[in-house]
Write a structure and sequence with these properties.
- The chain is of the alpha+beta class.
- It contains eight helices and five strands; from the N terminus they run αααββααβααββα.
- The protein has a three-stranded antiparallel sheet with strand order 3-5-4.
- Helix 1 crosses helix 3 and helix 5 packs across helix 7.
- The N and C termini lie far apart (about 80 Å).
- This is Segregation and condensation protein B.
């Protein structure tokens, strides 16, 4: 089989793989499809050709060797653009209850689930679980109170998600108070 054909098949394998694909996995896939045996040297030759092809400025992606495998990733020049899309998509997926829970954790951390529920006035099991799954919060440890409940705090991903360098950059409650939520006249 011509090297060019092998290269195209390897390129397709890497493109379709959700995670990095190892040389061994590539060999297994190709040998299962083709009659002639593909050897490691052919794989590395193709990987070099693919890497050279995508290293050109014409492409926004590149071939990266990571975790003992190969994967197409966006070039560093485009990380901010892709990050904005990911942030936009992930923000849309948080429910109102999850946002309330996240805000409580952000402002009162470290905090127990019971304290969250006392502030919200409703059960917060599902919201806390979703925030843990999305890695927006993390477990800080256990409180020194009876029963030793779990303490939650925001994670580094929370900081990235909201574009913060430090928690003191969170809006202060006085900055987000709506005029319709005040009683009486404002004399200031």
């Amino acid at each position: 089989m011509p090297q060019q054909d092998i290269t195209r098949h390897i390129e397709a394998l890497i493109f379709s793989s959700i995670q990095s694909i190892s040389v061994e996995e590539i060999i297994l896939a190709l040998n299962a499809v083709f009659e002639e045996e593909i050897v490691e040297s052919q794989i590395f030759e193709s990987l070099d050709l693919i890497a050279a092809k995508y290293s050109k400025d014409d492409f926004a992606i590149e071939l990266v060797n990571l975790n003992k495998g190969y994967q197409f990733l966006t070039k560093k020049d485009y990380h901010e653009t892709v990050n904005q899309l990911q942030l936009h998509r992930s923000k849309k997926k948080l429910s109102q209850a999850a946002m309330e829970t996240l805000a409580i954790i952000a402002y009162r951390q470290p905090i127990t689930k019971l304290e969250i529920e006392q502030i919200r006035g409703v059960n917060s099991d599902y919201s806390v679980q979703r925030l843990l799954e999305k890695e927006l919060i993390s477990i800080e440890g256990k409180a020194e109170t009876p029963g030793r409940p779990i303490l939650y705090r925001t994670s580094p991903l929370f900081m990235d998600y909201f574009g913060l360098n430090h928690l003191n950059q969170l809006p202060q409650l006085k900055d987000i108070t709506k005029e319709e939520n005040t009683i009486g006249e404002n004399t200031a």
